Amino acid sequence: MPAPVATSGQDGDGRSERLRLAAAEVIAHHGVAAASARSIAAAAGMAPSAINYNHGSLERLLSATFTRGLADTASWLKGRIGELAFLPATPDAAALALEDVIVQWTAGERSLAVLYQECLATSLGSGVAADWTRLWRDFWLDVAEQFGLDPLEGRLLHVFFESEALHNLSRWSPALERGALREMCEYFAETWLGAIPRLGRGALDQAERIAGAKAHGTLPPAALRIAEAAAEVVEDKGLGGLTHRAVAARAGLTTGSVTHHFRSIEDLLAGAIRGQVQLLMQEADGGSHDQSPPAIDDVTSVEHLIDAIQLQAGQDRPPSPLTRRRSLFLATIHRPDLATAGAVIRFSYGGTVREALGRLRPGTQASLALTAGVLSRLLSALWYACSAEDEPRTARERLSRRINERFVVGLRAG
């Protein structure tokens, strides 16, 4: 006869809750890939068999952990919406609200913020992940109404949030990263919400240069093959599964071939990150679509540039290098020694778009970094912001049109 499964109401000694809290702790510090029955039970000071007894299975325990995270987020957001009501009802204040929520969420509620990202990574667009995304969408729609913005502008607030709710978990250079975030929020509000134009401070450009995100340096084909395999291993097994042997098996090579190009695990991870950045650049320059837009390197007008990046919103899934890029970044936030590698991922957005804009609309490196960086972040976050919609593709296409329209108007005004 199977053992009974305790529920929260029947859990008199608190064991079910202890396991859930332990699961949340393991996920927040090490990632969902590390959330095994053994690791969770050890964190709870219990035997692994307690998971089946109290929750039925590890999968049910993880689901209960994410569900509680959703409920905790809903409670937190009620307090935030009331606090934001003290700000003026203007687009400029909406930029302040955007920055404040991102910072408070990723710093003050860091464990919960990581739990959200790990939930997205495991079941984007379904189950608890979809409910959680819809919660954030509805919150930003309420914020938009509070600041006199239309619903599409509220959706754009949500899109920007989905990008930086992940990337602001970085702990690479807090002062510089906070400056870059503020600069991006202000530029976003100016271009897409109609806020008052403000002079950029050069923080994003500085972050890109110091992180090394601009020096894209190409990897030779053999090393790129290994780097892509390393990224796949991290995506499937987490950082704990990243070994030279595992990468060699995934790439169909000998272990010696892998160590020839990447001697240490740190070199391998850095190579995986560089490889994903390079693959994204190649895809942006002339990705494979049934309807091929002009390559970004060949664009002759801003309109052609928009055509070159517009079709990505119509795809059913984000490009695999983009999902691996997010997986790699999520892996780096669990390891303080990999903060610099994470910064490369965070600040490598928009490189190809920046180069194209430099030819079409010459400007300072700082202004080009800001323009291309924010645009690229919005476009890359579309899948995540729209993943819980009844018709995700329609929602992405509608939002991408608004993004591109306002972007072109902003460039002409500038």
UniProtKB/TrEMBL annotation:
InterPro entries: Homeodomain-like_sf, HTH-type_TetR-like_transc_reg, HTH_TetR. It comes from Caulobacter henricii. This is HTH tetR-type domain-containing protein. Residues 220-280 form the HTH tetR-type domain. PROSITE patterns: HTH_TETR_2 (PS50977). The keyword Secreted does not apply. Residues 243-262 bind DNA. Keywords: DNA-binding. One of its GO terms (molecular function) is transcription cis-regulatory region binding.
